[in-house]
Request: fold
Amino acid sequence: MTRTIEQLKTIQPVVIKQLQTIIEKNRTAHAYIFDGEQGTGKREVAHFFAKLLLCDNIIHNVPCETCRQCIRIESGNHPNVVEIMPDGAFIKIEQVRELLAEMKKKGMEEGRKIYILHDADRLNVGAANTLLKYLEEPDGVVTAILVTAQLQSILPTIRSRCQHIKFQKMPRAVLIEKLLAAGVTQSMASTVSMVTNELETAIALSQDEQFASARKTVLKLVEAVQKNVHEALLIVHEDWLPSFKEKSDMEQALDLLLFAYRDIVAYKANPDAAFTYPDLLPLLREVSLQTTYEQLSNQLQAILHTRSNLQRNMNRALMMEQLMLNLQEG
Reply:
């Protein structure tokens, strides 16, 4: 579903304002990179910008959505707006050559021509070099929009010839609101919105039984640590280690554990804060009253240190046992 301009303003207020100022001051560059994570609205903002550039009746710096130009862009049928997607793993040199040939066709309408390259980080070497030549010597009134979630994978020589538009992550409150609308529970929405900023991934995660089980194991461990170290060690050996055999699973579990201790810090500072585990509030309240900021800082550092040790392939059982002792001591 296409987002409205009001929704785009909510998700990317700075970007929308940047693009509106570009049009208002008539400072359109010949190439832009739209850089941001998945789910930050880059594709829809690219279409919004194309409409701003071609709309016949801009009202208050917003495309009218009703003129012939806007309607054709929305339907994907505007002859002066060409979009390229990767063909398999890459955007290939033939695709870029066809694109540039299309840009030079006499049959296209008068006025600005716009091409949008989605996943521009997936240009293969030949395609990137061909595009670079065109960026160095653009032919006519042309605007390129390169859309990417992996800016570092684009050739530095291409990056240097484009104006960089940085997309911020979707505000967590907006993501939670969308997850609730999709039927995800408040507690699960609060957790998955800390793990990913991408709506579809968050919904999939919320429905993943393995993730739900991991979440449960982490919270079980947090409760056990507050009771005594022996119970915590029992859960490590009976639940934690058998559940998180892969390094990636262990990394995610340690992240979830870190979020729980951050929740305790957040509750101590502001009981009305937005938590990762709102269903754990009674425990957060209890622990925050019994623990100093210094102890919580030591516990957070212990978890981060354990996560770092995980990359060194240390014995995981010993590593987790040491963590339980450190968490107990604070």
